[in-house]
## 1
Amino acid sequence: MLRTLLIPFRVLINFTWAALTTAIVGLMVIVVGIFKLLLPFPPLTRFFSHLANSVFRIWGYCMSVTFQLTQRMDWHIEGDLNIHKKGWYLIMANHMSWVDILVLMHLTRRNVPMPRFFLKYQLLWVPIVGMGCWTLDMPFMRRYSKEKLQKKPHLQGKDIETTARSCAKFKHIPTTVVNFCEGTRFTPEKHAKKSSPYKHLLTPKAGGTAFALQIMGDQFEAILDITIVYPGNDDRPVVWHLLSGQLRDVYVDIKTLPITPELIGDYQNDPEFKASFQSWLNERWQQKDATIDRLKAKAEQDNR
């Protein structure tokens, strides 16, 4: 019945559901975080971290409902996430929309360790969401322009320190570390401004992925290279299509990559390794660009 409502009512229902469930789950996580802060004893800290993780998984199920609440949406998934909750994994994904986070929550809600996202520092001040993510030890990253780094060189490497601290915390609880390697959402304007060599992607930033592998490479069981495509949604923001009940298809390609010794090294101090890792990531992005072309062609064929 909800699928037959006019668009304004669908937007209201979807937004209310997403906001309300986020607020409730966020507050539950924060309550757990308060106990974790007040009782800083290792056994209790680990217990509260696992409890917060379980509460966070509830949010994954809630976000999964959002995709079907006012629309009939089809998932087209190639590859699989045949892994287990008690492992450690690294996800590399392209970034088209804020909906990407909900897609990853849908994919990981059952059999995957709950994801931790690298977030922009400004999100720390979003009511409930920021504090909830802080409780879950998600890293908040600051981005500095070249001009600012020239004026304040002591800020150089701050993101590296944040990555190191966060990954050190992830070692104590099964985690899927998520890195949107492009660092920001794709838009045609950003694509043109940055002179990206890829058709559908921005140039990836290698630092975050390399440092996560350097710190946790011996613990990660695999890299999950995930490509997300929303065919037919190039004219308007994907989040609008989701809220208005017009998101019909999501195409996802999942490739499981082994972690080889060549991917682990001192990215900051070893120029040879840095060049090698950047070359590897750029090659992955070339393949991801081709995958997007293939998925878009498949979507056109499916919709004929």
Note: The mean pLDDT is 88.
## 2
Amino acid sequence: MAINPNLNSLAYFEAVARTGRVSLAAAELGVSAAAVSQQLKQLEEQWGVRLFRRKDRRLTLTLDGEMLFQATTNAFRMIRGARAVVLRQRNSWQLTVRSSPSFAVRWLTPRLKHFLDANPDWGVRVDATPDFSDFETEAIDLDMRYGAGAWEGLHTECIINDFFLPMCSPAYRDALAALNSDPAGLLANARLIHSVKTLYQWDAWLLVHGIDPPLEQAPLRFDRSSMAIQLARDGAGVVLDSATLAQEDLERGTLVPLSTTFEVVEFPAYWIACPPRHVNRRTVRIFSDWIREQGRSFDRQARSLLTELGCRIRFATDDEPVLR
């Protein structure tokens, strides 16, 4: 008949075999030496073998004891490792967020270390993709979307208003100004860089300002604001894009407003979105609170920066061709 191993006895045996002394094993296990000796005796009787040789108050493993020790020490090492993993997972938090690529790279990622420093036990995954989440089929906790908001069936909240203005490198601005000092005339000789997925496009902006489109060279069109902003910084033309995404370049002076005569247009643009059932998830609630705080801080910084650059900010009007 098979003998079911006594795990308690095996644990005592493993500790004695590893430390070499009953007293050391007893101290490690937090029991008396007599209790350890009793467990070893019962184990030898149950298995019908001698596990130790006793000589001069020292214990050495027999061949059977050595075989059992190799098995038990490996088993208990695996168990201790599994316990550590379980405890680590129990004490950690996992969050999966989806975000538009340019926003993830230029706004979210530079701020994530602040969140992780405050929440060191969190594991965070960010999927940077333009595709909206399908919360019914994908394991996404929260979506950070760029758009007009009010997505059907989702809880939505605007966390950041965007600030839109024409921007270019200082050298490109100076070259245009040398050809025509009139603010509207600056664009007559400009090459426009189009961010094709932004909420405010060049044709709408030019219409609002009563400016005829320039006779462009071959158009420059990009589906990522990060690429369009990079090209403007490199002096390839003028981009109409987000001060939210270009904040670092505006602070450094590698990008400048084309002209402070043109007002900066403000409108709701960046949102957190998720099914209503996700709102009360602790991870979603904590991360959302942090995002709100970061959004408020950024809003103050952005307004201060644009004011320092001499820009005036106005909110998009209801009849303005933006968000359509």
Note: The mean pLDDT is 87.
## 3
Amino acid sequence: MSDTVAPMLSVFPSRALVDENFKVVVENLPPGSPVTLHSLHQCEDKHYWEAYGHYISNHRGTVSVTDDLSFGGTYTGKEAMGLLWSMRPVPGSREGLRLRKRNVCSPLLVNISVYRGHVVEGFREQAPLASSLTERWYMAPGVQRIEIREKGVRGTLFLPPGPGPFPGLLDIWGGGGGLVEYRSALLGSHGYASLALEYFAPGELKSSDLEFNYFETAFNIVKDHPQVMPDKVGIFGLSLGAILTLLLAAESSIIKPSCCVCVSGNHLYPRGGSIKESFFLVISFKVGRINCPVMVVNSHDDQNWATVESSEDMAQMMRAAGNLHLLTRLYYPDAGHLIEPPYTPHFRATKFVKDKKEKVILLWGGQTKPHSDAQEDSWKKILAFLEQNLYSSPTLKAKM
């Protein structure tokens, strides 16, 4: 590299929400130089995650990750966010890891570096030419995080900045259990009062004695909040949470959601399965009762459930009931079960707490590039769907 001017690496913006794009640029390289762009993150469990791409500087001695091709690495081609979505545990890590943010009050710290040549291993043992630290946040400035322990309901409410009132969301995660806050924090950053609901602890699904009205009560906690528009409250579910979302929309006589988003769920569940049989009484025969807009997001390589076939069955029943116009379906080839916010690394299989005494490796499915594309595309369409059905006028996203 040049002996007179040191290479310079910049990331803009260096502080942003996790679903925002950034630009990574390296300058002051000799023209035609092979270099490797590398990202490194140490998660809250102290595991290291990395991604990298191989580039060649242009005639001006510059590499732009947004504009230039990666010729190899964990991603190839012109991929502006490849340094995030293609992250994987560093070689030698434990099997079945999954990257999930627990403390949403702190950022994901990602160190981005440039190395001489096309490097494939041993990044931490080499000195980079230049580095830059970037912050990726789920929670924008001014978003309030409020613990909820009310009427037997457990969860965390995220309120956007300002006095409101805001449209509301009940955010229901899946069969892994526990309290998962990061999607609600991000929804709060987009202008929604979002309640991340906890309804059983990890490994306790079969022993849960929750009743159907637990979810109705949680919905009403959001609806009745003084900073929430009571007639603009929706439900957002993933996996088992998507099943519960459909069930609430179809069966509840107490709550009336304004819209529903169901990611990787279905309208069928085996009797005698999880939680309580009473949760899943003949929902497959009553989807026609749904009278609010519903968006279902499904993948053809979902290795958990036949979600695509389920949505086709739903469409037939809603057509027969005369409410097919309320259903929006998104299909993604080669994506897997865990469709999350954009640039979340893809996990084809991870450890899963089956019960308190047993952990298994669960296959989710998907291929990294198409799965990542599905996450980015579906998130944009989900936000547009929520804005259309919960906001009377366009909203401005919170800025870091």
Note: DSSP finds six helices and 19 strands in the chain.
## 4
Amino acid sequence: MSDTKQPYDADVKDEKTLELSVDSTSDIQDPNFERRTLRKVDWRLLPLLAVVYAVALIDRINLGVARTAGMGKDLKLTVGARYSIVTCLYFVPYILGQLPGNLVLRKLGARNWLSFCVFAWGAVQLGMGFVPTWGYLILCRVLLGLFEAAFFPGLVLIISTWYRRYEVQTRLAAFYLLSITIGGFSPIFAYAISLLNGKRGIAGWEWIFIIEGAITIALSLVFYLGLPDFPDKNKFLTPEQTALILKRVEDDRGDSVPDEITFTKVKLHLSDWTIWAYGVMFMCATTPAYAISYFISIILQGMGYKISDALLLSAPPYGPAFISAMLFAWLSDKHRVRTPYIIVQAIITAVGLILTAYAPQNSVRYFGTFLTNAGCSGCIPGILAYGANNVVSQSKRSVQSAVTVAFGGIGGIVASTVFREKDFPKYRPGLWATFGMQILMIALALITAAHFKRLNRLADEGKTKKPLEGREGFRYTL
């Protein structure tokens, strides 16, 4: 074989024999060419993923808005723990489906598999507008969790394969925060839809599910046509641009070429305790995020706001969260550290929870929701980047992202169960439980950082038996 390698052909099917190279005389070494290529990837990848994931969030969390708009009364969800049961059971298939969904992503193709998932949960969401009892609502929520399970970890995996380690948090934050910012306006959108109450004999809360489900189904086609897939399978870049993207990843961490996923590898990856630590940290970050999503309009209603005001005031806390989290993501990538910024944002979350629980004035309690949302919204992409930075090989990345996001589903279960109906309207036990999880997240951030710092030191001193993560020169991100 010649030593001169050619730029990657996007039609190459045999990934095992994929060879990376860059012609030394090509544009690829031009910094302007690199910036243009990255900008092209950013604009093709991030807005599309953000919009579709925003729809996923809206479809997942609009239960609280629908309840406020009349579903709670019509389906008798205020009886006992029915509302908590309905919100909680969504997460059982959502958690169980994460790892299998990520493991088949390569085999089925990201575009085919994820577009099917979007279409399927859109159909379920639409069907929720016609449920006659709360039992049928549970069935729809279980199916919704099943079809959404593979989506978020799949998106995280795709994004992490396109960028170098210290570019990924800013991109993950942009994608995630665009999603939650768009999703943050869903209460206003839902309130507008609910004004259709009585049209064609359909209740306002039913219109919320019908219209939002129809929008999701339409977006599944857009997603199918627009998703660029993994770098080595993309069709929108030139061969030279593709070679550049793959070379950057290869130089950074050596896993631009996908390795085969086997049962033995999956077991080996799952034996790494740090993968489970990322998951628990993610659970601690998502619990307040889900609590805000599911209960903010209910908490505001409990403060004395009328239904329309409670729905409209549910959106503003998402605005400052975008600015705060993007700032922390930029700082984290710039300084190439993760845990200090995760800890700071966990503290912000904890302060917000205390204010929401105990501040005597409603205005200060409402301000607490801003702090809570800002802190947890920044921790989520920070933890995703922390995990993605500290694994090598696409098979381990698939396992790590799936396990991490699966624990996010456990955070949803915790939020659904600790915010109990009997604690309405202040939900102090739930807020205290969520506060305790921020302390746990800080502790795990310190433990993992100390562990990685020790391994890096041993590697620098030549005292490790083999290279870290099997990659010569690799060092963990703290």
Note: Residues 342 and 379 are 5 Å apart (CA to CA).
